[in-house]
Structure formats: C-alpha cells, structure tokens
RNA polymerase sigma factor
Amino acid sequence: MEKQTAKTSLVAFITGGKEDFYRLAYSYVKNQEDALDIVQESIQKALASVDSVRNPDTIKSWFYKILVRTAIDVLRKQKKLKVMDDRTLEFLSRGKEDTYQDTDLREALEELPYQYKTIIILRFFEDMKIEEIADITGDNINTVKTRLYRGLKLMRIQLTKEELS
C-alpha cells in the first residue's frame, strides 16, 4: 500500500510540475532537446526507484535531487563538446527583442560553479526554501546559506567587473 501511495504521489507531482522541471533543466543546458532528455531521464530514474521512497511527502525534494544531478551529469558529459557558437545562434534567433537587462545577469549566473548555480536557481527561480534546497542538494542548511551568499557575492563581483570594462 505504501509503495502505491509513493508512486501515485510521484505521478501526480510529475504531471503537475512538468513545466517547472523543463525550465530548471533548460537553465542548466540552454538547449531544448537536452532539457527534454534530462526531464525524461529523471522521470525514468524516479519511476525505477520510487519504491525507495518511504514518505510520499518527500517526493518533491527527492525528484528535484534526481533532476539536478541528472542535469549536472549531462553538463559534465558535454563539457568537452560545448560549441561556442551557441551564444551567437541564440542571440541571432532573438530577432529585434532587446534583452540588455538580463544578459549580464544570465552570463554571471552561467559563470558560477554548479554548487552555487544550483542553489541560486532553486532559491530564486524555483522559489524554494533553504530547507528544501538543503534536502535536494544533500547539504546541511548552513552550507546552503553559505553557498547562496557566496554565489550571490561571486555574481556581484562578476557584474561589477563587467560594468568597469
């Protein structure tokens, strides 16, 4: 009975949050196909191991943990294959849309190491609480707070450098 409850909770959670999962995966890989692959692979991993979930209330953080780790794994695999023309292609595909305000912020976020980037994305883009982020990343709350502070500080330094250039 407990296993069925976890599986039911997982299916309901996945069905209700697929746009959020895609957005989070896309924030890592900046590519539609890869983001969809990450979401699909995460769902497969979750369905395969849903029996390990003892408390259906932890489904959210458990699934986000799978999603974040899968996204990071994909980035690590692609690191050697990354093409620099993606930014140019993305810029040209925007047409006449002005995006000056977000460009520096987006680039500063991209420059961050995974440990900081993950926490900032989950906190500010997924609107998660520090406790939820700690559960997802497997770190204690103080570590999450420290990484959030340091990540924001690194972004601030990066943005200040760009202003001075």
User: Anything to note?
Assistant: Confidence is low (pLDDT under 50) at residues 95-100.
